[in-house]
Design a protein that fits this description.
heterodimer, A: about 110 residues, alpha+beta, Arc Repressor Mutant, subunit A, three-stranded antiparallel sheet, 6 helices, B: mainly alpha
């Protein structure tokens, strides 16, 4: 069936969409980390406009999935947190973008 | 979502943070001022001293002033290599320009047109380098800086203002622009202190 096969074409990449990255705030974080090697907490906070708590929660989820590495250190007496994307996170992000592109490309035009 | 978030745009936004504090404007302005002072005092080493001294000072100030306000980011290795290559090219061009200027100026029999229009050629080359930075970093105000540098020579040739004063005027205005940007940056981004348990405070 034509409609069915078209539906499968759309469905197949949709099921592969990584829901963890699909959340807009986490996608934005991943995108920022994708274009740099390492960024600190403050940089991500300023760039994304998230609150401290929000950013912390999203990064915690990404860290639990193994997508980012969070390193805490002290510069003098001040705490300093840096974040970087792992290879796994980088691959997951690329895969997510590829899948999303395929989903959107397979949508019928008006 | 994928269509909304353009990675190139994000990369550009990240690069722009490099110029957000106005410190590179101040660096350029002081360097141009250095040229003016070098012509005025005939101390040819001044631009070099200004360039090196201010360059390292700016990095120090950035660490103390900028990073606690907007955070720290390290570009990817590929980007860093690209930036270094561009700076090397730029540095080589500036060096060659300086050598060319010294050789041409030191020639006993230089053509008349060269003697007449030397300031225009020299300032034009400096302005072209600044335009290159503006284009590469997409910081439009650097085009204005380039125009100011070029105008210094134009005013010298057609209004009779001393060449050195063209440099000093342009450099001074660029420093003032940089200071204005720095002040608005400091107002916009207060220092933030990261806290261990969560909420940051300003």
């Amino acid at each position: 069936m034509r409609a069915g096969s078209n539906g499968d074409q759309i469905q197949e990449p949709i099921t592969k969409i990584d829901k963890l990255i699909h959340e807009p705030s986490r996608y934005t974080l991943m995108a920022y980390l994708y274009v740099v090697e390492v960024a600190d907490f403050l940089f991500l906070l300023r760039q994304t406009g998230m609150t401290w708590g929000n950013l912390s929660a999203h990064l915690g989820k990404l860290e639990a999935a193994g997508y980012v590495v969070i390193e805490k250190e002290f510069l003098g007496k001040k705490p300093h947190t840096t974040v970087r994307l792992t290879d796994e996170g980088r691959n997951a992000f690329e895969e997510y973008r590829g899948n999303m592109k395929r989903v959107l490309d397979n949508l019928p035009t008006k | 979502m994928v269509a909304d978030v353009n990675l190139k745009e994000i990369q550009r936004k990240v690069y722009m943070t490099f110029f957000q504090d106005g410190l590179w404007d101040i660096f350029l302005g002081l360097f141009i001022l250095g040229w003016g002072l070098a012509i005025l005092t005939e101390a040819v080493y001044l631009p070099g001293v200004f360039f090196t001294g201010i360059y390292f000072t700016i990095w120090g100030i950035k660490k103390w002033l900028t990073y606690p306000r907007i955070g720290y980011v390290r570009f990817s290795r590929t980007s860093r290599r690209r930036i270094t290559a561009r700076f090397l090219i730029l540095g080589t061009v500036v060096l060659l320009l300086g050598l060319l200027a010294a050789v041409l100026w030191g020639m006993g029999t230089r053509p008349q047109w060269l003697a007449d229009y030397f300031p225009l050629i020299f300032n034009g080359m400096l302005a072209a380098i600044v335009c290159f930075v503006a284009y590469w970093a997409r910081v439009n105000r650097f085009y204005l800086h380039a125009a100011l540098i070029f105008l210094g020579a134009v005013f010298h040739l057609w209004l009779g203002i001393g060449w050195e004063f063209g440099f000093i005027g342009a450099g001074g205005i660029i420093v003032l622009i940089g200071l204005g940007i720095l002040i608005s940056f400091l107002r916009k981004y207060p220092k933030m202190i990261e806290e261990v348990q969560g909420e940051g405070r300003q």
